[in-house]
Structure formats: C-alpha cells, structure tokens
Structure prediction request, 380 residues.
Amino acid sequence: MASLQEYNKKLRSFKNTLKITKTMKMVSASKLRKAQQNQLGTKAYADKIRELIVRLAGSVDENAHPLLRKNEDAKKALVLVFTSDKGLCGGFNNYAIKYVEKWLAAEGASYDQVDLGCCGRRGFNYFNARYENVKEFEDVTRNPSVAAAKSIADGAMEQFLSGAYDEVFVAYNEFHSPLSQTPTIKKLLPVDPVSNREEAEKAASEEEKADDTEYIFEPSKSDLLEILFPQVVEFSVFSTLLENSAGEHGARMTAMDNATNNSKSLIESYTLLRNRARQAAITTELTEIISGAEAL
Amino acid sequence: MSSFNFMILTPTGPLFEGEVESLVVEATDGKLGVLAHHAPMVASLASGDICIKQSGEEKTFAADAGLLEVGSDGSVMILATAVS
Prediction:
C-alpha cells in the first residue's frame, strides 16, 4: 500500500486536472454556442442561394459552365481535409484522418494521383509525415472566415479549371450534435449538376405553382450563373469550415466532460484509499504507543 | 414616398433589414436604382457602394460582388460575400 503522502500528492494532481478539464469544457461550450450561431446565420444565405440557382438553373446545360464539366475518367484528385488545429477533443481528428485513409485505400486507388490539402494542423501533421505533396492552409479552422474560405475555394477552382485536378473533394466531420459527428467525404468540384438538378426541378415545380412571375435577368441567365457558381463553391467551403469548427468544439466539450467525470470518480476512490492509509497509520502509531507503555 | 422591404444577406448572417424608400447599387452593367414596386428582377452586382434611403436619410454600405433580387412581392434582397 502506498503511503499517505503519496496518496495526497496523487489527489492534488487529480484535483488540478479536474480544474483544467472543467474549465476547458465550459470554454468549449461557449465556443460551441458561438459556432452554432454562426451556422444559423448562414442558413438564410444558403436558402436564398439555393433558391436563386433553382430559378436560374432550369435552363442550364450541363456543359454550360466549366465548373460543371465532368471528366469521365478522372485521373487526378485533390482532397481537402478539414481537421482542428488543436487536440484534446476525443476522436474528432482521428476519425476524420482514419476515414480519409480508408477512402484513399478504397476509392483513391482508381486515381493516378491523389493530393491532399489540409485545413487544420492536426490533419497536416499526420498526413505530411506519411504522404507526399501535402499542402497546408494555415490558420483557417480556428476562426472560420469568409476570406479564408474564399482563398481555399479560389485555389481549388483555379487548379480545377487549369486541369491540374479533375476532381476536388472535401473531407470533414459532419456535425449532428455535440455528442455525434461522423466523418464524410463529399465532392466539391465539379459541381454536381444531377443532384442539383433533381432538387432544382422539384423545387421549381413547387415554385411554379406558387409564383409564375416573369423575372428580368440582368445580365443574361447564363452570365448570372457564371457569377453564382463560384459563390456556391466558396460558400460550401465556408459552411464546411463552420461545421468543422462546431464539431471540434462539440467534440472537445464531450471529451472534457468525460475527463471531468473520470477525474471526479478517481478523486472519490483515491480519497477512500487515502483515508484508509491514514487510519492504518494511526492504528500503527497507537499500537506502538500502547505496546511502548506496556513495556514500562 | 412608398417604401419596400430591403435586406442584405452575407454568409455570416443578415447585415441589414428594414423598410427603405430607394436603393442605388453598382450593377455589372452600370449603376442601378430601385424604387418601390419594381418588377421582379435578378441582377449581378460589381463591388461598390450600396446606397439606401431610409426615412429620408441616406446610408451607404461597401460591398463585394454579389447578386440582387427583387422578389415578386416587391421585397429586395442583396446577396454579397463581404459587406461593411
């Protein structure tokens, strides 16, 4: 059995850990609230942009815009991996990284070349040590900003349009709740006209019933779409950044909550052990005193 | 003077919402003014100033390129990536 002092030392360090994890949990909770508010703020914009695409896209040809251009045999792909800059958030980053690795082994094999672009230091540190040609977008995940999203999206679009890549994917953790995030990979480029189209047609038929007003388009529809598509790509990168940040804080909050509970139960059991050790020490001392007195 | 509902939406959230009497924006084809009861329209905007007149007072926003939509109910909405 360890001595009383050793138990006391352990307990002190548990209590310090508890303080840290508790604080981190509260900080993450408030950051999560902020991230979720930001997500809500984007909703109006997202809805409106979708509505505009629906209104415009009815007449769009699949080859109308270079961002829609599909390559039948795509050879070069770029995967943008979104992780956090900091750890201590449970399996949040690990799940995303493992998912991407699995995807690279399964789907990535059909490409000649798959390059990675990492947003977030955790993912970059991991992939840079194991793969070649890993790019890093620094300092974009902590405070998701439109400007950062724009620079990432513009870079990706430029490389897509110049033919450096045939397809661009985003890999990130989908945010369901603070307790659950699931890693996913989605295609960013080319903009998928089919899924958009189905959605568009469905919404358009609903809309036609609601209003059949003639719109003035200034400039023409196709010119407007040309302006709209890059914005859609930028915006989807931005919302990915937001979702990643909400997920990070949610995961950290859950992880720190678990850590707090664990250290609480450790403190409880170690307090019992400490008390037992103290009582044992007292008993030994008493026995010594009594036997000493008897000897006189 | 009759007024209409006007809204500026950015990816980070709505920036302005209210009844305004007139609106002048920098469209890609030149300056564009909107008064109440404008016909439904979608127009693209170049980066420039958005000038609005609200109860006689003029206000100006600087905006990045975006889109302007006049809805069938006469309300006007601007979608822009960055507005200040």
Summary: The domain at 31-252 of chain A is CATH 3.40.1380.10 (Pyruvate Kinase; Chain: A, domain 1).
